[in-house]
Amino acid sequence: MDRPGLLAFLRAHRLCVQATVSPYGFPQAAVVGFAVTDELELVFDTEATSRKVKNLREDPRMAVVVGGDEDKTAQLEGIADEPTGAERARLVEAYLRVWPDGVERAAWPHITYVRFRPHWARYSDFGPGGGIVTWDEDDLIGEGSG
């Protein structure tokens, strides 16, 4: 699988398991709805006052698992942030194309958008003839594949 194949796989899914570590070292996980941009950024909306966002502000490292259906899974590790200005507008637009009901949530006070940029990814296909492909940061940011 190449980078465009990874993008297609991610776009075929709307939910992921997002895992982080609290400032106290405790693992945390949540199922979140996400959208993915052409630049391979995952974006989701959430309450800016939530424990999840507070912890991400202190330690922006995140892992995401997508899939699990048909013996195929993508695992990504990277850094999260809360974009502002034109970057935020671009990501909100991408998110709302996938989650049109997000317009209602955007009207709530304290909604923020979190962008996740993977630095490492692994795609596993345990079906017949499948395999495992890994990418590092250069592969994910550039047009190469692992």
Could you characterize the architecture of this molecule?
It is a single chain. The chain is of the alpha+beta class. It has one domain: Roll (Pnp Oxidase, Chain A). 28% of the residues lie in helices and 40% in strands. It contains five helices and eight strands, in the order αββββαββααββα. Strands 1, 2, 3, 4, 5, 6, 7 and 8 form an eight-stranded antiparallel beta sheet that branches. The protein is globular, with a radius of gyration of 15 Å.
Query: Mean pLDDT score, rounded?
Result: 89
| Approximate shape | globular
- What do we call the CATH topology? Pnp Oxidase, Chain A
Instruction: Give the topology string: H per helix, E per strand.
Output: HEEEEHEEHHEEH
Number of spatially distinct domains: 1
By CATH, the architecture is named Roll
Defining key terms:
146 residues; alpha+beta; Pnp Oxidase, Chain A; eight-stranded antiparallel β-sheet; 5 helices; 8 strands; globular
Helix and strand topology:
Layout: H1 3-11, E1 15-21, E2 27-33, E3 35-36, E4 42-47, H2 51-58, E5 61-67, E6 72-81, H3 85-98, H4 102-106, E7 111-125, E8 132-135, H5 137-141
Antiparallel strand pairs: 1-2, 1-5, 3-4, 4-7, 5-6, 6-7, 7-8
Entry summary:
With 146 residues, this protein is of the alpha+beta class. 28% of the residues lie in helices and 40% in strands.
